[in-house]
Amino acid sequence: MDDLSSTSPEHFFSDRFNVTPALMERLLGGELARRVDDADIYLEYRVNEELVLEENVVKKASRHVSQGAGVRAQAETRTGYAHTDEISLSNLEEAARQARAIADRAAGAPGVLAVPGRGRAHDLYALAEPPIVTALTRKLELLRKIDAAARAADPRIGQVIASLSSEEIVILIATASGWTIGDVRPLTRLNVTVIAEENGKREIGSWGGGGRVPFDYFLEAERWTRFATEATRQAVLKLRAVEAPAGTMTVVLGPGWPGILLHEAIGHGLEGDFNRKGVSAFAGRLGQRVASELVTVVDDGTIPNRRGSLNVDDEGTPTGRTVLIENGVLTGYMQDRLNARLMKMAPTGNGRRESYAHPPMPRMTNTFMLAGQDDPQEIIRSVPNGLYAVAFGGGQVDITSGRFVFSASEAYLIEGGRVTAPVKGATLIGNGPEALRRVSRVGHDLALDEGVGTCGKDGQSVPVGVGLPTIRLDGMTVGGTQV
């Protein structure tokens, strides 16, 4: 198997496709730079591998290689984008012509120059052995051990699905501002799903994790054992869950994965494109108080080995740590180059795309709320009656209004300041900005998720990270089945 990280992106594309940085710069100068405000060329070579074990039988073993290039030209608010799955000089020249034709503005029309990326690229995930090159036999052995461990954990486990996906992506980006930058991105994820059954009742539990880490990450401290145990615990717990109450109540969110609510309910509303277009609930509110003074939210793409981290974004801008809300005050938006140019702001390293076939847009990386001062157990003790939610499943958000509905996949009643019965069917209903104002206590136990997040926007999916300390939300609407 190829170790794509063994050579630089510049040499990789030069050796395999005869496409050099000098050639890319010539294409930008000759075909794109005239009569546009910004332009770039994005080359990508991707190897994906997936292994699925179901009922101790290999149900899927696949390896897929894809490659391609995307060429973008921007003039004022217009973007021309053309892509090809064959990396060659002739195709790049044709893509450049088509992109410029779409974006071209009238000769002499005033434009706004693109702001170049600032800072130096990071080195956040250099691995001795990328997960894509680890032998399949080792991976299959791990999945079989997970299957056995999950079944041994509880006799009520009747079905186990264990999967391991890995990829490595080589990218090379040339920009109209005259610089070329590349990156080699490993990514892997282990997931365990189990079904528990008792007295004709069946429940599902799921757990997993990963990041820009090697395969051996899952073997460290037998991390895979915890994944199997947690999936089993979750499924068995649901067998005795009671119906969730409904009404207005105090809600405590646990640390880590519940940050997905933060990601969805307010994160997208802090992306530059929605604010430039005036459709976000946060548009035009920089410098205003939008949350409790206990709330500080950041997006940080520079955390080593995290799923949402990048050395550079998909426009070649180094990622950074962007403070979005500080002590309740809105301080920034996440920006790609296009929206930063039009809003006269600096790009923040949040220009992301699913692949060469998609133009970049402002997207989150690792988004989380900073820790506070409170003891998490004291936060729970402060609630006479309420809901404690520690994991969430699906949800829906309206960016313009900020309205959201999220279903809790693991939640408990709080009675007399104590966590008691597990509940099922609980949903949180509210408004993102309003929910932030309802934060009354913030724990000191900030945790990031295990490394399973995938974010969708405009038909594109990218890996992300989320995080949260324990927080208390007062007066939240909870949907359930009891009144």
What does this structure look like?
This protein has 483 residues and is an alpha+beta fold. The protein has two domains: 4-239, 2-Layer Sandwich (PmbA/TldD fold), CATH 3.30.2290.10; 243-479, no CATH class. Helix content is 22%, strand content 39%. It has helices spanning 9-17, 21-32, 89-103, 136-153, 223-239, 259-267, 272-276, 337-343, 376-381, 432-437; strands at 38-54, 57-75, 78-84, 157-175, 180-198, 201-211, 242-243, 247-253, 297-300, 321-326, 329-330, 351-352, 361-362, 366-369, 385-397, 403-415, 418-424, 427-431, 439-442, 447-448, 454-457, 460-463, 465-468, 471-479. The protein has a six-stranded antiparallel β-sheet. A six-stranded mixed β-sheet has the order 11-10-9-14-23-20. A five-stranded mixed beta barrel has the order 8-15-16-18-24. The radius of gyration is 24 Å and the shape is globular.
Task: Give the SSE layout.
Elements: H1 9-17, H2 21-32, E1 38-54, E2 57-75, E3 78-84, H3 89-103, H4 136-153, E4 157-175, E5 180-198, E6 201-211, H5 223-239, E7 242-243, E8 247-253, H6 259-267, H7 272-276, E9 297-300, E10 321-326, E11 329-330, H8 337-343, E12 351-352, E13 361-362, E14 366-369, H9 376-381, E15 385-397, E16 403-415, E17 418-424, E18 427-431, H10 432-437, E19 439-442, E20 447-448, E21 454-457, E22 460-463, E23 465-468, E24 471-479
Parallel strand pairs: 7-17, 8-15, 14-23
Antiparallel strand pairs: 1-2, 1-4, 2-3, 4-5, 5-6, 8-24, 9-10, 9-14, 10-11, 12-13, 15-16, 16-17, 16-18, 18-24, 19-24, 20-23, 21-22
